[in-house]
Prior knowledge:
By secondary structure, this protein is α/β, with parallel strands linked by helices. It has helices spanning 2-21, 29-39, 52-68, 135-143, 158-169, 249-267, 289-295, 333-341, 364-368, 400-413, 415-418, and strands at 80-97, 100-102, 107-110, 115-119, 125-129, 149-153, 172-174, 183-187, 196-216, 220-230, 236-240, 243-245, 274-281, 303-309, 322-325, 347-350, 374-378. The protein has two domains: 23-71 and 217-431, Aminopeptidase; 88-205. 29% of the residues lie in helices and 27% in strands. Helix 2 crosses helix 6 (249-267) and helix 3 runs parallel beside helix 6. The longest helix is centred in the N-terminal third of the chain and has 20 residues, at 2-21. The radius of gyration is 23 Å and the shape is elongated. The N and C termini lie far apart (49 Å). Residues 1-21 form the signal peptide. Keywords: Signal.
Amino acid sequence: MKKIKLAALALVCGSIVTASAQDLSSITQDKTTRIVSTLSADNMEGRASFTPGIEKAAQFIQNEFQRIGLKPVPGEDDLMQSFMMYRVSPVEKEVKLNGKDIKPENVFAITDKKELEWKQKGKQKVVTIGENDNFRTSLGELNNQQQDVLVLVHPKHEEIFKRYQHYLREGSVKQKLGESSSKVFVLTDQAAAKKYKLEVENKIEKLQLTNVAGMIEGKRKNEYVVFSGHYDHIGIQTAVDGDSIANGADDDAAGTTAMMMLADYYKQQPQPERSLIFVAFAAEEIGGFGSKYFSEQLNPDQIVAMFNIEMVGKPSKFGPNSAYLTGFERSDLGPLMQKRLQGTTYSIHPDPYPEQNLFYRSDNATLARLGVPAHTISSVQIDQDKTYHTVKDELEQLDMAHLTNMIKAIALASQGVVNGEDTPTRVDKSQVK
């Protein structure tokens, strides 16, 4: 019995020594602060897609990748992975419901059509989001429907309705035109649409989006490990106390900073066994188009794992130096990370907010749908966070010691996958929505 205990002790001590042996001295709070403060500064203007602010942020990330010495990813000539999209912006909205005119500010449409003209004798389905329904859940279900839908939204949901309308005021983004169904949302106390008529006119523009992506080639150069974070945010909002810039410090300057710091860290290590890709995704906030495009450029069977990082600037509910992994049960990447963190002050936990559907709300979802063990690391207490998607998401709200420690934790937790010792199980594609 004593020999068994000694052997077990030796095994634990071995894991502590292995974790501690990694030199994390290059990951400092000063470096972390420099990057996250630059990305979340007022002069980035909230990093909304298709704005000068997002272009400035992309240039900064590219310069950092060049300084670090990253190479372009396969199929690209440089670190900017650019692609074209269509922006569909509302010009005019006229809706009459049961003989009553609806104000334009109580209407928004999700469509890829230049014009919509609907009457009650049309083929549209009518759906009601009632007082006790979950607006976000209902929206997700409607977006998966293939037919045109007129959606009547109870006034109780006015706040979140107006938030979506504000996002769409600058235009919704589409990969293709004319192939999707349309959804028109009307904020009203009317519970039925016995008679309706609506006309929607949009402006269509062809515009560019850009991921910033670089690579460290490994010994097994066709086996990829992805580290990612989205660098866009929601731009200029309604002013609160004179401040209209949604700086997006935690969402997701913090995660983008972590990804960039990990690129710098791994570039200073010996050549990794597997190739490492570091990518700052565009357009997560308006539909995850950056990660969708990225996923189409590589063979998903060659991607061993994805460590997507989002909102790691504030302590989690599990205490200091802790984070959680979305979709923890969908592969064994989480347990592999936990194993690497044994004997350290850091810890990774299953997602404590399953009702928030976080696994599908970040850039990991696209690759997870293709079978990649792609998960998001986060620490935000999303059920209590008061600055999410507001002008209050500022640098001063972040715990810089925690953010720096999260970067160190991910460096330790990812080591086994990077050096080829750990290979996580694949996500069951049939179980992913």
